[in-house]
Design goal:
The structure is a single chain. By secondary structure, this protein is mainly α. The protein is built from nine helices and no strands.
């Protein structure tokens, strides 16, 4: 394993965890960060007495709440200008549009649902700020979503670390499973679109031909 998540968390400490969760919750540059697996692994480290569980819970919860608030404020103040901005390495209008689709479908509940969906969770509060969501309503759902996501995943890692002997041996498969669960809703949403399914089928048909051509040439 080239990237050791446990050692990474040990290195960045509480301040690094705060910055990472804060960035993923509301900053445009945070959409690629692995929040789910980091929260779970940090909880596991607390079960091994590497981190303090009370401090961890407070730091992650506060970072998640503040991050979403910054995202909402950003969207409310200058979010509409994003639709006129050119795509770049760290920004794609498609991310905003995906979050907007979820917001239109689920309303305020998107703030809670999006917590468990990479990319969407970063842009959902920005879209809420761009739209007409009442700030008091946003705060309520923000607190609920932060508790379920940040505290929930911390506790899941903590209790699993205490319940299963030598759970660290199975940590990588568990983290991969969490990542799969987090991206599954996005995959299902993409596959519901006929054009996306058609593109995927075309790629699947093309891949064997390319592999056969490469094998023949070798």
């Amino acid at each position: 394993m080239h990237f050791n998540l446990i050692e990474f968390i040990k290195t960045i400490g509480y301040l690094g965890l705060f910055a990472l969760i804060f960035a993923e919750s509301g900053l445009l540059i945070g959409f690629f960060l692995p929040g789910d697996s980091v929260l779970f692994t940090a909880g596991f480290l607390a079960s091994q007495h590497v981190l303090s569980l009370p401090i961890l819970l407070v730091i992650c919860f506060v970072a998640a709440v503040l991050g979403d608030n910054v995202g909402y404020t950003f969207g409310h103040k200058i979010g509409k200008k994003l639709f006129n901005r050119e795509d770049s390495l760290l920004f794609h209008k498609d991310h905003i549009l995906k979050a907007q689709t979820y917001y239109e479908k689920y309303g305020a509940k998107t703030i809670v649902i999006a917590r468990f969906m990479p990319v969407i969770r970063t842009f959902a509060p920005i879209v809420a700020g761009i739209g007409t969501m009442n700030y008091r309503t946003f705060v309520i759902y923000n607190l609920l979503g932060a508790a379920l996501w940040a505290i929930g995943l911390n506790l899941a890692g903590f209790f699993l670390g205490n319940l299963i002997p030598d759970v660290d041996k199975y940590l990588l498969p568990i983290i991969l499973f969490i990542i799969l669960l987090s991206v599954l809703p996005s995959i299902i949403h993409i596959l519901k679109e006929p054009q996306h399914r058609k593109t995927l089928v075309g790629l699947m048909k093309l891949l064997p031909r390319k592999l056969l051509k490469k094998t023949t040439s070798d």
